[in-house]
Amino acid sequence: MNTSHHSRTRRGRVVAGAALATAGVLVALSVPSVASAADGDTTIDIVDINDFHGRIESEGTTADKAAGAARLATVVQSWREANPNTIFTSAGDNVGASTFTSLIQQDTPTIEALNAMRLDVSAIGNHELDKGQDDFTDRIEAAADWQYVSANIVEEGTTTPAFTPYQIVEKGGVEVGFIGATTEDLIPGLVSPGGVEGLEMAPVVSQVNKYADELTDGDPDNGEADVLVLLVHEGAASSNIADATGSSTFAKIAAGVDERVSAIVSAHTHFSYDHEIAGPTGELRPVIQTGSYGVNYGHLQLTVDADKQLTDISAEVTPVNTDPRTATDTSSVAEVAGIVADAKAVAEVEGAKPLGKVTGDLRRAVQSDRTSENRGGESVLGNNIAEVQRAATARNGSQVAFMNPGGLRTDILYRSSGANDPDGTVTYKEAALVQPFANTLVTEDMTGQQIKDALEQQWQPDGSDRPFLKLGVSDGFAYTYDPAKGRGERITTMTLDGEPIALTDTLKVTVNSFLSTGGDKFSAFTTGKNIADSGQVDLQAQVDYFAANPVVTPPKDQRAVGVTVSPTPDGGFRPGDEVTVRLSSLVFSSEDPSAAGSVSIGAGDEELASAPIDPTIVDKTDEQGTATLTFTVPGATASDDGVARAAASTRAVAAAETAEQPLVVTLPGGQTITLAVTIPAETAAEPEPEPGTDPTDPADPTDPGTLPGVEDGGDVDGGAGTGVPIDDGDGDVDAIVPTDELAFTGAELTGPAIAAGLLLLAGVAGLVVARRGRAQRAAAGTAD
């Protein structure tokens, strides 16, 4: 039991116990009881949960396992029997992202179970709006016997709440006001923007304070409350009190909400904590969260005197399974147990239906603990689901599909626990749990630039809890990125079936309805043309895919690779240059790290370097699987004079240009990735000249070193001939390009031919200067 206890009034502090608990410390305290209250006092018990997510079925009996709805009903009923002035509350996400038992019936069993437990009031969580505001009001809210509240989901352009902002619950003559609030990240980001059109988020603190003032201003027309409690679907980033008292979004809520709010019940982040945190005037108050899935429950106990003043408040967070409470009246418990049993029966029938088989695990990316989900990592499952959705819309012309990582809620395993499928059988239930949101598939025409913009948005805005969200991509699509670049400049190449995608190309793209309306801040997906909802639900697409592909092999090709190359010198890489290529995202984090293997880089048929892959995982990113490859560009290094002489030969330069070849990375298993970086082919460095025509041959009278009037590396001697001098910047004329006759053949140049020749030679001169300058700097020991 994690308990805190202090005494206070609504208008001032009363001398009493000190703060006794911090997160993660179990402290045994005596909790004020109804019997010990002074004459005229009223004791109110508030039992709360958060982020239940349809966990109506028990997952075990230990303290860390979901207890299930029937066990939770027993705890709630036991508190009611101990004190009729008991209120049952939730801080949101009662439904959505649920287990199959509830999901298969659109969470109807969960709503019925909470109705049977007589839930009094709940904040609106983000998952209540998974399918939009109409679904929330017409299905969820309509079926719920409790009141949903949120003060800061407002009508667009106003501060007017779109839903009920608070609910007053009367117990023992005391009016307890519950103000609701929802994470400000709801819009945009956590729900499909298309489902919440006309709504926006107002700041939690200002909206809550507005209603705290209204409920305590003495005007009965506003509705008055004797005690205020905030139910907020937002929470701290960990159980550590530092994350609830620093500069985070939640810390600002905990410190900024009006002191007339006596306690804050939080949610959303799935952490368990029981803190005491100072409000605006420095007065401490309980700030709690129970974790998630009904594993724990929260308990606030309020003592209110005859003048309706709060004189004492305590808080605790307790595991449901290890709480010894039992109920005498088990009618509500039996009703809940019956609801769960019926739901399980339906789920067993529907869920047991086989869809197909897999030859290996289809897993999400993991963090460095190799267990926790990493939405920033490329995953086998994400790429598979993207391909499923592309295939489902192929008849609509789809060429590429993208899948958001947050839409994947569990893995598909070859040997799933509790299933008789040693042969890799995937059931309807297993597939349904992967994508529980029933999104539809949407197609749209996007340019290469718009696709690039979407990929750039994987790097989320600064300050995001998840700084990188890795999109799953369908078969045939691949891209490289440079993690060293800045925002908006990281994507370096994109290909489809090995062919480059130009920024002006147009492709038919498939995304789910969540992404199509800018979910997870991927606003680029709202910019396409011919946007059309196919009407196909994502789960049905999975069912159809297994029907067409009864045996699915997990895709193991990397569809995004990080590439950072040492700066390219002026004029490009030349023989003798040292090149360093840093690679990342070479392996899936969910794979066996001992099997990472090695990577190599080459050009043409020649391998230039190889290195083992480091599989170390970098949390919240896709950088796992790194390697650094360094090599020297092969081929003879030309001398300074040779560079100058080569500049005079348009034929030699043209040959060198056509012989540039790209660097190619080869991953374990043979997958290759062509980089947007080239080096010269060795065969191009020494073109075979025709006898007597090699301009770099000293015996050739047109060699720049023996041109009339030109001294190689010297000044003009006043010799015969007129032309354009070429100077590499050292003050000496290195060559003169004749304008009265073609230097190497004697053919006359007139009119347009002269102009074309001058343009070509000007380009050659630029190359001479660049390469000559590099040679001089190298000789002087300076960096390029």
Give the gist of this structure:
It contains 17 helices and 35 strands. It has 784 residues and is of the alpha/beta class.
Task: Give the topology.
Layout (H helix, E strand, L loop, with lengths): L1 E5 L35 E8 L19 H14 L3 E5 L9 H4 L4 H9 L4 E3 L9 H11 L3 E3 L3 E3 L10 E6 L2 E9 L3 H5 L8 E3 L2 H11 L12 E7 L8 H4 L3 H8 L4 E5 L6 E7 L5 E7 L5 E9 L5 E10 L11 H21 L2 E5 L21 H13 L7 E4 L21 E3 H7 L5 E8 H9 L15 E2 L3 E5 L9 E6 L2 E2 L5 E7 H4 L12 E9 H11 L2 E2 L7 E6 L12 E7 L13 E6 L2 E7 L14 E6 L7 H8 L2 H9 L1 E7 L5 E9 L42 E4 L8 E4 L13 H29 L4
Helix pairs in contact: 1-9, 3-9, 10-14, 15-17
EC number: 3.1.3.5
Protein name: 5'-nucleotidase
InterPro entries: 5'-Nucleotdase_C, 5'-Nucleotdase_C_sf, 5_nucleotidase/apyrase, Calcineurin-like_PHP, Metallo-depent_PP-like, TAT_signal
